[in-house]
Amino acid sequence: MTASLSSVSVVFGREFRAYFATPLAAIFLVVFLALAGAMTFFVSGFFARGSADMAAFFTWMPWLFLVLLPAIGMRLWAEERRSGTIELLMTMPVAPWTIVLGKFLAGWAFTGVALALTTPLWITVNWLGSPDNGVIAAGYLGTFLMAGAFLAIAACISTLTKNQVIAFISAAIVTFLLVTAGLELVLGAIRGWAPYWMTEAVAALSVLEHFQRITQGLIEAPTLIFFGSLIVLALMINTFLVDLKKAQ
Amino acid sequence: MDRFAKFTHWIGGLSRRQMIGTSIALCAVLFISVNIFAGRALDGWRADVTETQVWTLSEGTETLLSDLSEPLHLRLYLSDGLTEAAPQLASYADRVRGMLQSYADQADGQITLEVIDPEPFSDAEDRAVGFGINRISLAGAAEPMFFGLAATNSTDGRSTIPIFSPDREAWLEYDLTRLVA
What we know:
Chain A: InterPro entries: ABC-2_transporter_component, ABC2_TM. The complex is a heterodimer of chains A (248) and B (181). By secondary structure, chain A is mostly helical.
């Protein structure tokens, strides 16, 4: 067990540093902060709302992440497969799941860094008024969990291809479907022909529904289980697929 | 026992690829069942971290909701354009909607909540006016807006909150519970 943990931490360290070895990290952070800022201040009218909360910021997170997290996740495995380093990685005396977990945690930690850099907004809100900090903390928790789920899906999809562009687009489509599953747009299209339980099942998979409740300050056990189980599911499938590619 | 032997034989005969495919399908089924179970069984496991306890109803309201003798239909008339035209109302509208959702959650299915966006010249708008919901005219908006609640029971009883005024925000739960009682 300790050997597995140390191998997770070695993979984690290597992957986390790899983000900063290339301009990727800087570009990602700048794009994320610029987009989040632009959406919050110009599109949502942060000041015009006149209320000290961060709802204007959190509303945009599902939509930003659905573009940005596939961009972080796409290189995790596709890059290894393209350059052939996956062969080397797989001959290491470590279990595939430790590599999968290490890579995922590195990407998730990187997303955490990006989110941490939005704290000036939180400081601004506290300086301008007296916001409900419990709700803001819940919002950050929800955003971080959602980021983890999207990243796990993106990483899982990137094992299927050597092409990072294909990995990116496929992951973006899957996360888009997960986000919109609860919207009337999708449910209306299904309701016409599918039985009731199927419509309910699709609605239950909606990221947006869970996300909206947690960002309004209501932390529910089903929400935590939903995001947690989505991460575990994606990582398990990821391990299976890596195992399969290893066998080929 | 024979069946079990057949089953293990079938598993043993699977290729690595089929085995992995089966595992993935099983994981997906497990994922969906865990979530359906969690949605049903752990519904009450929640933490309300808001300062004003928006999601937590007072004891009196909870008793009243669990003792409701007849089904109620709540229609919240909330124009989509309202929060754009009056952003200062956005958080209040969220709060009203959240609290009504808590009422519906607590009432063991006795309360149905419907959130309606009455578009201009639609049947929904006529019905809102019929219930006595006030039209709100805002400076920046061309069309009148609605932000009110109508409650009906199975017979012809009805009561309304013609407009949710921000002045009454502190008494929101009191107003709603009076309406339901």
